[in-house]
């Protein structure tokens, strides 16, 4: 994404202040949102609802910044349920079953050919290898991408090849047709000053995991 949802490398938001002995959930409702998110997962089988991250990144920037972490999750979950017709606006507003809405049914999984998100046991040629110099392509997709904005157009060095994974990007509707494109994922080292100029530390570096489609020879 190209908006506030991709906050890596941005500043001006104040210091990061870790909370000592931070609990898993600060409020009981946060745990309920997490549990509900897991519970509704099976209802997505056979339904074309947008991907998890794409839905989060579709929240308007002003609203996104004003929400807490699990408020965003709740918005994501209810948005997916609404667009797939599993709940109605009336049910979301009142918290009660809408007698005029059709009864939701669990569907069997669709045979979409998705390769999933895990490591794939596939023999796919690698375009790059350790020590190769690469440049992150200057891509600006309208859907979700795993390429951080701050590395676009920057040069780095391949450190490790993690193996073959399906590309997890989405199209502009939040679907993942690209996950059928298995390819290598690499750990790429970027020198701090390549990313931040003179503001970067001379001895610092950032390691970013990048799909092969994001890279070109430097």
How would you describe what is shown here?
The chain is α+β, with helices and mostly antiparallel strands. It folds into two domains: 1-101, Nitrile hydratase, beta subunit (Cyclin A, domain 1); 133-217, SH3 type barrels. The longest helix is centred in the middle third of the chain and has 15 residues, at 69-83. The mean pLDDT is 91. It has helices spanning 28-40, 52-57, 61-66, 69-83, 89-94, 192-196; strands at residues 133-136, 155-166, 182-191, 205-211, 215-217. The relative contact order is 0.14. The radius of gyration is 20 Å and the shape is globular. Helices cover 23% and strands 17% of the residues. A five-stranded antiparallel beta sheet has the order 4-3-2-1-5. Helix 1 packs parallel to helix 4 (69-83).
Number of domains: 2
Give the CA-CA distance, first to last residue. Answer: 24 Å
Level-1 CATH class name of the largest domain:
Mainly Alpha
Helix content: 10-25%
Low-pLDDT windows of residues: none
Query: What CATH architecture of the largest domain do you see?
Result: Orthogonal Bundle
Measured by DSSP, the beta-strand proportion falls in 15-25%
The tally of strands reads 5
* Rg (C-alpha, Å): 20 Å
CATH superfamily caption of the largest domain:
Nitrile hydratase, beta subunit
Give the overall average pLDDT. 91
Largest sheet, if any?
Answer: 5 strands, antiparallel
Strand order across the largest sheet: 4-3-2-1-5
Q: What is the string of helix and strand elements?
A: HHHHHEEEHEE
Q: What best-fitting shape do the alpha-carbon axes yield?
A: globular
CATH topology name of the largest domain, in short, is Cyclin A, domain 1
Q: Could you say which structural class the secondary elements and strand pairing correspond to? A: alpha+beta
Instruction: Figure out the total of helices.
Output: 6
């Amino acid at each position: 994404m190209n908006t506030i949802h991709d906050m890596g490398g941005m500043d001006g938001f104040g210091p990061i202040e870790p909370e000592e002995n931070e609990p898993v959930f600060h409020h009981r409702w946060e745990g309920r949102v997490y549990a509900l998110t897991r519970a509704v997962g099976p209802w997505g089988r056979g339904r074309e609802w947008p991907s998890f991250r794409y839905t989060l990144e579709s929240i308007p920037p002003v609203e996104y910044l004003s929400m807490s972490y699990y408020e965003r999750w709740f918005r994501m979950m209810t948005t997916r349920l609404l667009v797939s017709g599993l709940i109605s606006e009336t049910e979301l507003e009142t918290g009660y079953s809408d007698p005029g809405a059709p009864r939701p049914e669990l569907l069997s999984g669709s045979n979409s050919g998705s390769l999933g998100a895990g490591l794939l046991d596939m023999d796919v040629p690698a375009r790059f290898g350790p020590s190769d110099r690469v440049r992150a392509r200057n891509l600006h997709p309208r859907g979700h991408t795993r390429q951080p904005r701050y590395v676009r157009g920057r040069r780095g060095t391949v450190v490790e090849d993690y193996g073959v994974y399906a590309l997890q990007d989405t199209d502009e509707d939040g679907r993942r047709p690209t996950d059928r494109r298995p390819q290598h994922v690499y750990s790429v080292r970027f020198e701090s000053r390549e990313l931040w100029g003179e503001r970067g530390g001379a001895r610092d570096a950032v390691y970013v995991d990048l799909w092969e489609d994001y890279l070109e020879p430097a």
